[in-house]
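assembly run, all chains below
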Amino acid sequence: MSKLYSGAEIVFKCLKDQNVEVIFGYPGGAVLPIYDELKNFNFIKHILVRHEQGAGHAAEGYARSSGKPGVLLVTSGPGATNAVTALTDAYMDSVPLVCISGQVPTHLIGTDAFQEADTTGITRPCTKHNWLVKDIKDLGKVIHKAFEVATTGRPGPVLVDIPKDVQFQKTSYAKFKKQKKKVGKIHNQFSQKDIDELIKLMSKASKPIFYTGGGVINSGPKASELLRELVRTTGFPITTTLQGLGSYPGEDGHFLGMLGMHGSYEANNAMHDCDLMINIGARFDDRITGKIDEFSPKSKKVHIDIDPSSINKNVKVDVPIVGDVEEVITSTIRTIKKVKPDFTKSNKQKISKWWEKIQKWRAVNSFDFVNSTETIKPQYAVQRLYELTKNKDTYITTEVGQHQMWAAQHYKFDKPNRWMTSGGLGTMGYGLPAAVGVQVAHPNKLVIDIAGEASVLMTMQEMSTAVQYSLPIKIFILNNEYMGMVRQWQELLHEKNYSESYTAALPDFVKLAEAYGCVGIRAKTPDELDDKIIEMINTDRPVIFDCMVDKEENCFPMIPSGKPHNQMLLGEKDRKETKISKKGKTLV
Amino acid sequence: MAKAKSAYSTPGKLGKLGTHIIVVWVDNEAGVLARVAGLFSGRGYNIESLAVAEIDPKLNISRITIVTTGTPQVIDQIKLQLKKLVPVHKVADFKREDKKVIFKEMALFKVVGNSSKKEKALKACKKYNPVILDKTKKSYVIQITALRREIDIMSKSLKKFGLVSVSRTGAVAMTRGSKVFK
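ok done. output:
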């Protein structure tokens, strides 16, 4: 008879077979048997967080920067409910997470036992799938299936809920045979016919644009390389979504910058006026499209996505291509080379007028701002941070708000998996724990959380985690003492009624850093900024950097709500120049 | 600028609503109905009726029949989102007008009254294969099978004959002819 293992042992045997090296977690009554086994499985490094939401975001940061699934281990009841925000965040941004949660013993389920919650019920809408394992015989199979579901197709979070008695019960463990190719639920459904159709449209187009998203990054680093080749081959302009940043080099001439609500003038106008839009791994999010009825009215639309339900959800497209980005681009490039080897040359002439138009939009320089010698402008702070860190292979996470948009506008990425931000759910408090996870995955790299002072306070306790594991993350706070994005909307839409968006009693971030046992640095003027940033980079310990910025700066350009792409609101500089007309606010 | 006082856009044009019957083959496991029903409620889709039972005890497959209304875009989303659920094997979608598909629903009517009323009630049901399942001096329980809208009509028209209680199964569907939906 084969050897019998306890449920807790099986959990770790599965993790080992899945090549898991790190788990983020927090112990509690219903997972103690699993924590008890931790000592016998040295291949796993457990990172003790300070709150289960932190475990989830750290696992997200780990997953997004490494391409591997993130694993978290939490207890029943509050442990699981605390993880819900992170699971939802991962669900929205397609991050592969495996959450293992403890549950009260099976005979107590449904009795309102201590620390009991209907975890599979609560997490059903925020996971790709979840399981309550009531029979020890199912445990191994379920955990392996969980990894498969999380990592195949459009990635996402899953949860396995294990009652405490199941963790003690014993059964045999069948060695896991890894399938050669994980297929998941959704297969690549595209055919050569789809690719031919795409190439036909590409060779006809005179105003084409690539609109690419997080799907390119989720498809793996190879997909980003192929995307570069595709852009080189076609000479088409490219814009990426917030999540797509890094899939294409930010300083390349073909790159129009990010699009969407706070995207560049050239990217949004090009999206509006194009005659062919090729969406690669993006999902026509409402922050991207603005008013749907007036979204890119004259274009043929192609949508490449691995998730069939993303196609035609918000915007009706002409050519849907269901498939993995890497494989679709591979066959596209292959076909172009075969059918139209001189595509670049023949096409250059055709789209030259389009490029001229784009250059005119580009000349508006929409990310520009009025700099100051007295106060640090937040955009200037991000620009300096970029200039001083661009030669290192830097990983950036963010919280949510104005600072996030400024980071997206002014920090340029040239590699995938270097940019971790909460886009879909917009979770304030994401960046700090995510930075912890990124630093765990890349111990020797520079990891910076570009933060706002309001967001970062939501998960500040994870500084303690960073200190415990000597993770030298840098928390770069653009401190304007306001919930900046809330204040901006109140200024623009609610007659400057700044209802509850000012934080009156902020902590002293330098002292806070010291209290946590890390390093606090403060910059107050533009003159001292560079030196202080360099000091931060050279510090080999976790740093909280309190960058005191202009309190009333707004994030521009901006597509006001309910407006199409070509009615952007530009920054102060432009508005001053066009003060003559009252309509100058909405430059068309 | 803005008259729209919101960070979100205003709703666009709506497509034409249609009634569809969605048939879903699922693994008969704990929580599967909650997943399907939760998908509908979570995304704001409408359920008019829902019928579910195991159809293959060996393979552990249940068949769920859902009647829903929505724009073509919403119906498409319903199908695609259902297909993404792990325990879902296949999804069929039939338009209510589809002549190649049989839609049937069973209803039980309890009629209370004198014999003349009871007989009148039974007579009114004549078109729909009525079966008397229970009979007392004062009451009948009549079973009929019919289309949804026919049962709607009957539930109204039987009121004058002493209808006191209605129980309906929700529609189930099957394609006509020898072909099976794959």
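Chain B touches chain A through 26 residues (CB under 8 Å).

The helical segments of chain B are 32-42, 72-84, 115-124, 148-157.

not gonna interpret more than that til we talk
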